[in-house]
Amino acid sequence: MTARREASAPPALPGYEHVRTLGLGGFADVFLYRQDLPRREVAVKVLLAGSLDDEVRQRFQTEANLMAQLSHHPSIVTVYQASIAADGRPYLVMEYCSRPGLAERYRVERIAVAEVLRIGVRLASAVETAHRAGILHRDIKPANVLTTDFGWPALADFGIAATTGHGAGVAVGMSIPWSPPELLAEHPRGDERSDVYSLGATLYSLLAGRTPFEIPGGQNGAQQLVARIERQPLPSTGRDDVPPQLQAVLERSMAKVPALRFGSAAELGRALQQVEAELRLPVTPLDLLDEGVPGPDAGGPVIDVADATRLRSIVAIPDAQPAPAGEQEPTRVRGPVTVDAQRARPGFVAPPEQAPELPSLGEPEPVEDSSARRGRTVAAVASAAVVLAAIVAIATAATSGRDEPRPGDTDFAQEPVTHQAVVPAPHTLKGERAQDGSVRFTWVNPDPQPDDAYLWSVLQVTGEPEIERIEEPAVTIPAARAGDEVCIEVSIVRSDGRATAQPAEACA
């Protein structure tokens, strides 16, 4: 066993006081500092003195720039400052996440399914935000997900990230247990779907308490893991409380062939939202920037009507007692005003004789110098009541036919969550070799639907296979392609584009 190295000496940073060491890494150490102004605790990542070659410096600078671009996202660690210490070591000043990270939890704690779903949706929105900015993370794993003081997951360590442009995706220093097959090939190539795989593998680890292809008590070296990642189907998490639809989402996100995975992190997030809805859990919102359309009268963006249907649970506040003399009167909350759904349509204006009568908010008390100000306050409250009533009515019309929010619900999805059946895998897949050396594979569709088709490909040890679409449940592979042994995988694809999460595999 290699001896644990000592932490490097924390640098003296003007305006910061060193507190303690937080973690040790291959290229950098992380320390807890107390910042003088503004007063707060921060995490400072400092490059090791022996790692100051040009390549490492460039990676460190890239990490600082990329994280700064994404720091506005609530599930990405915020970077406050980047600079060079007096001893020449570059450092990053970052948000200090005080709670245990996912790496500290997943092997020692049985994390609830509901929490894993919440973490998954929030991380999916963080990864999607990075992708929309043209950035691949390339090293998503439990150790790179911290936990904020408020319990939110925070994606960190963009040290080996790359842009999504031409030439991107070459693997550098990735972590094998959470890496997709295409990044383990002789000539690794990856794209957004590679991050989707790693995110799915991370969620699997949270549920299973181990890495996806790890065999407890077995041989789990790099060579064994790579072989399983490339060839073996994803095993079950081993938990009875993990529903089949969640297992199917994990299997699709970690499909061997990138084309069979979710096409984006946002799609994975929506699939996790659907599982939440089917389990009757509060649906976690995807935190993505909306692209608003400027309105005709104002220069700012207009909120989409669909986004206006997002509701938060109403907190009931009891009627306040009159405030003692000399103290400010507390705000009083009245019940919502019911508005007919017909009136909730965008652009509807009620005739004067049909306009709803608002409940009286009381007459303003005549006070010497503050009467005008109090009158303006009452008018503002009345206007707010009208806006609140309209929003509630829009939400009621838009969500008719859906379950009512339950106590404790916090957010509903920004986009409709549809309930779709899981597409099954073909069964009885088998191959028979003919005398000419060709192999004919046949299979059975357990749930045939109109316009079903099939996606199939020859499994390869490295590289990305060529996927072909056929209409019949059979395919013949010529002798020139069959060789001594040939293995294929087959998925069912519906007319709406949904496909089997875990393809069937067979060899002949």
Automatic annotation (TrEMBL):
GO terms of molecular function: ATP binding; protein serine/threonine kinase activity
UniProt-listed Enzyme Commission number(s): 2.7.11.1
Listed name of the protein: non-specific serine/threonine protein kinase
Binding site for ATP: K45
InterPro entries: Kinase-like_dom_sf, Prot_kinase_dom, Protein_kinase_ATP_BS, Ser/Thr_kinase_AS
Highest taxon, organism lineage: Bacteria
CDD domains: STKc_PknB_like
Natural source organism: Cellulomonas gilvus (strain ATCC 13127 / NRRL B-14078) (Cellvibrio gilvus)
